[in-house]
Amino acid sequence: MTGLWCPGCGSTRVVRSLLHGDIAHAFAMNPLLVCALPVVALMALSAAGWNPPQLAGFRRLFGNPKTWLWVLCTYWVLRNLPWPPFHWLAPGGLGW
Questions:
Q1: SS3 at position 91
Q2: Which parts of the chain have pLDDT scores under 50?
Q3: Which residues span the membrane (predicted)?
Q4: Do the Cβ atoms of 80 and 4 come closer than 8 Å?
């Protein structure tokens, strides 16, 4: 409705591309989601009780909602800037 790309735009296409093994296309649709999926998986394992001491700093940083708010808001602004390299963050911005 606004013509702006939200942080989640392209997420369905990312999941579909990853299920088909097409990592490059998934990255072209929403690079933040592709990079965040391993982080979210580790956080889910941590919530399930797997807490190795080597990941204590990781859990402290990514378990903080302020970190996610900062990342999502920054990504939202950057992917809506109309010049390179920022417009490449929009779904299909890499020419896919």
A1: coil
A2: none
A3: 27-50
A4: yes
